[in-house]
Design brief:
Shape: globular
Helix content: 25-40%
Number of helices: 5
Radius of gyration: 16 Å
Distance between the termini: 23 Å
Structural class: alpha/beta
Number of strands: 12
Strand content: 15-25%
Largest sheet: 7 strands, mixed
Order of helices and strands: HHHEHEEEEEEEHEEEE
Strand order of the largest sheet: 3-2-1-6-9-11-12
Length: 188
Amino acid sequence: MYESKTALRVALLSQRNSLSTEKADSWSRSIQTRLLETPLYKSANAIALYSSVQNEAATEKIRDHSLQNGKRVIYPRLLADRKLELVEIESASELAAGKSGIAEPVGDKVFSRCGEVDLLLIVPGVAFDLTGNRLGRGQAWYDRVIRQWDSRATPVGLAYEFQIIDRLPVDPWDEKVLFISTQERFID
């Protein structure tokens, strides 16, 4: 067991960053395919995704499938106050490198909580445990987004199997995911 979030973050980021491109691509395809096959994905009419960086599980296959099948596709954009806003895109060409070098939406179609929407909120993580706790990069961006959307969204983590650990250290502000898709299983 790791004594702190920092030690766990360093160890797992190192392991993730050491993955070969081929292995990360292969596992990412499996993770995404597993999610695409679930009733959870099939029934959602809106999908919020992240742009993967530093060997995170990729989301492009989910994005492309969602766009081709008429689902609303949303990405986060980092604001000046270090908060995220969700912006809808209609094609991959509406993404460009943002302030932090991560692909963000360039449009102005801000996605809000109004109206009936079944939002599947796909979130990245450095680690997850089997009870849905999530360890991110330490900025709490996705904790705030999950909290903001509350029961109006279903948070799902994408992770490589080695990122699933027995128990994560948890702080009061940490938000859980309800499901996790790995290359080996879909965890409820």
